Amino acid sequence: MSKIFYPNRDFSKKAKIKNMCEYNEICAEADDNYEAYWDKIAKEKIDWFKPYNKVLDEGNAPFYKWFIGGKLNITHQCIGRHLKNRKNKAAIIWEGEDGSRRIITYLLLYYRVNRLANLLKEKFGIKKGDRVVIYMPMIPEATFAMLACAKIGAIHSVVFGGFSAEALRDRIIDAGAKLVITADGAYRRGNPYLLKPIVDKALEEKCECVENVLMVQRNFEEVNLVQGRDHIYNDIIKNYSEFCKAEEMDSEDPLFLLYTSGSTGKPKGVQHSSAGYILWAQWTMENVFDVKENDTFWCTADVGWITGHTYIVYGPLAMGATTIMYEGVPLYPDAGRWWKMIEELRVNQFYTAPTAIRLLHKVGANEPVKYDLSSLKVLGTVGEPINPDAWMWYYETIGGGKCSIVDTWWQTETGGHIISPLPGATPIKPGAATFPLPGIKAEIIDKDGNPTPKGEKGLLCITKPWPSMIRTIWGDPDRFVKSYFGDCKKNGKPVYFSGDAAIYDEDGYIFITGRTDDVINVSGHRLGTAEIEGVIGHEEHVAEVAVVGRPDDIKGEDVFAYIVTKKDIDEATLIKNINILITKEIGPIAKAGSILIVPGLPKTRSGKIMRRILRTIAKGEKITQDISTIEDSSIVGTIEKIFKEQK
Ligand code: WT7
Question: Which residues of the chain have pLDDT under 70?
Fold first, then answer.
C-alpha cells in the first residue's frame, strides 16, 4: 500500500475545490445531467460573440459536436476580454537562455498579435481555414504566431523545432500549408543554432502548397533567403496596424492541428476545435493548477507539443494569468537554472515532466537548496508515469513538503487534463493520477465495457464525449474512427480508447501503467515504433528490423532496435548509419539508444513479428509467454544469449 499525502490545510482553505466532498458533489452534478453541467461552465467561462443553441450533438458519433451555433474568437477569450482589467499585467514573461528577459503585457500582446494577424492577411492572403505551419524556437513570437492565426481563423500546425526537415516536410504536405512561420534560429547550451536551413531543406521537394516563409530574426545568424518567398518579420511587422477585427469563429471551427505518432503509419494530424478546447484549457488551469490572479505559472514544455499549446499559451492566457516561457535547456549553465528562475520570478505553479525531474535529481541533487523555492504552491507532472523516487524528491526537495503534486494524465487527443488530483482536495499517492476530473467519464474497462476489478490491468477509456476531445484526424476521418473508437465498446456503443492500460488500486485510485500499443514514450515524447522501423529499414545493410521500448532510468523508455542484416557490416558503422538516418528523417529525439544485431526475429507462422517477446528480452526479464506458436522457437534463446553477451 502506498503512503497517502494530504493537501496542505492552509492551501485547501483558499483553493477552488477545497475537499473531496466538493469534488464528489461536482461529479454527481455532472452525472445527473451531463449537458446541463457543461452548459453551465461554458456559459460562465466563455465570452461568446453569439450564444450556442445546443450543448452536444451526438447525431454523427464519434464525430461529436459541442456548443452548436456558438460564435467566439479564442483571441478575445485569451487577450481582448482582459484589456479592461489587466491591460498592464504581464501576460508572458520570457527568459532567454542568456538570462535576458522580455515582458509582454496583455495590451502589448494584443498589439503584437494584431499586427501579425494583419500581416498574414494583407501580405500573404491568409484566410479563415488556411493552414499555417509554425516551426519556431521558444520565443514569444511563436505565441504571437499561434494567436495571430487564431485571430483570423487560420488553422495553425506547430511542428516541434527538434523535428528534422523530412518530418517537417511530411507535416507541411499533409496539412497543405500555405505559409511557414519560422526563425533564423535560437540559442541552446550557450550556442546559436539554426532552424531556417531546415525549413529550406523541407521546402526543396513536394511543398508546392507553401507560397511564403516568414522568418523572425532571433540570433541574427546568417541564413539563406529565397527572393519572393522569404520575408523577414522584424523588417516588415511595423508596417501593419495594431488593430485587427477578430474573425467570428464557430464553436466547431478547427483551432489547430497537432501531429502525433500512432502505432502504425505516418503521424496523425490531431484536429482540435475552438470552443470546447478553450473551455477545458481554462477550466483545468483554474482548478487543477488553482491559479489565482497574481500567480506566476510556469510550464517547461515546448510549444511544439500539446502541453505547450494548452498550458503555456491557451490555458494561462484564457485565464488572464502570467505565463513563463523559457528558451533554453534545464542544464544551462548548470542544473540549478530552473530553481534559480523559480526563485527570481517567484513562480507559484510549476509543471514539468518526470524525465526532467529524474535528470535534475541525478545531476543536480544539491542545487535546489541554494535557492528559495518557497513561492511554489502546486507542482505538476505530465507525459509518463512518475516513479516513487522522483516523486518524493519533487515533493520534498522542490515542494518543501507543502505543495500538492498534480500527476496529470492526458494526451494530445484529449486537449487538456483528464485524470488528475485537485491540489486542494485530493489526498495523493505517489505515482497515481488519482481520479477523473469532474464531468470526465474516464474508466478502466475491458473491450466490452465491463469495469476492471481492483488490482487488475484494464484499458483506459473515456466513455462519454467531452468538449476538448479530438474532432478528427486531418484528412483521414476513417483513421480517426478506427484509431480511437475501434477497440472498446460500452453498452454496445464504441467509446474512446486511449491506448493506455491502467489499474484501480484498492481505494479506487487510478495508476497508469503505460501504452498497450506499439507506441513508446521517450522522455515524455510519443514515438511510433513502426515509424522508426520504417526509417531504419532504409539503411542499405538492414534486412529486417523490430523496434521496442526499453526501460531507461532518465528517459523512462529508450528506443531499442533488433536488426537482421543482409550484408556484412561492422556493428559500430551500422549503429552510426542508423542514427544519422533517424536524425535526418525524424529528429534526434528518436535516436536508437541500443541496437542489437540478431540472426532472425521471432515470428508467428503467419509471419507476424512477436514484439511482446522482444520487449521482454529488452527489459532483461524472463520470458513467460507461450512461444510455441513461433515458427522457429530456437531464435528466442539465440537472441537472449546475444542480449546477455552485449550487456
Ligand atoms: C501519452 C500521451 C499530454 C501531454 C504529454 C504527452 C502518457 C501522459 C501521463 C501521466 C502516465 C502519462 C500516456 C499517454 N502520459 N501523461 N500523468 N502518467 N502516463 O502527450 O504525446 O499525446 O502522449 O503520454 O501514455 O497516452 P502525448
Answer: 1
The reported pLDDT for the residue numbered 1 is 57
Cα–Cα distances (Å) from 553 to 12, 38, 134, 332, 579, in that order, read: 34, 41, 33, 21, 21
User: 397 near 368, Cβ under 8 Å?
Assistant: yes
Nearest to 175 by CA among 201, 152, 149: 149
CA 395/CA 407 separation, integer angstroms: 12
Note the pLDDT of residue 14: 98
Give the closest residue (by CA) to ligand 1 atom 5. 383
Give the whole-angstrom CA distance, residue 496 versus residue 418: 13
Distance 107 CA to ligand 1 centre (A): 34
Q: Which residues form ligand 1's pocket by a CB distance below 6 Å? A: 260, 306-307, 382-385, 407-412, 433, 498-500, 512, 514-515, 521, 526
Report all structural domains of the chain as residue ranges with CATH numbers, in order of start: 33-329 (3.40.50.12780), 519-646 (3.30.300.30)
Using the mean position of ligand 1's atoms as its centre, give its distance from the Cα of residue 461 in Å: 14
- Best residue for ligand 1 mutational test, from 512, 516, 589 (most atoms within 8 Å of Cβ): 512
Cis peptide before 333 (omega within 30 of 0): yes
* Per-residue three-class SS string for 371-407: CCCCCCCEEEEECCCCCHHHHHHHHHHHCCCCCEEEE
How far apart CA 632 and CA 617 sit, in angstroms, is: 17
This model's pTM is above 0.90: yes
Q: Give residue 646's pLDDT.
A: 83
> For residue 512, which atom of ligand 1 is closest to its CA?
11
Residue ID of nearest Cα to ligand 1 atom 19: 384
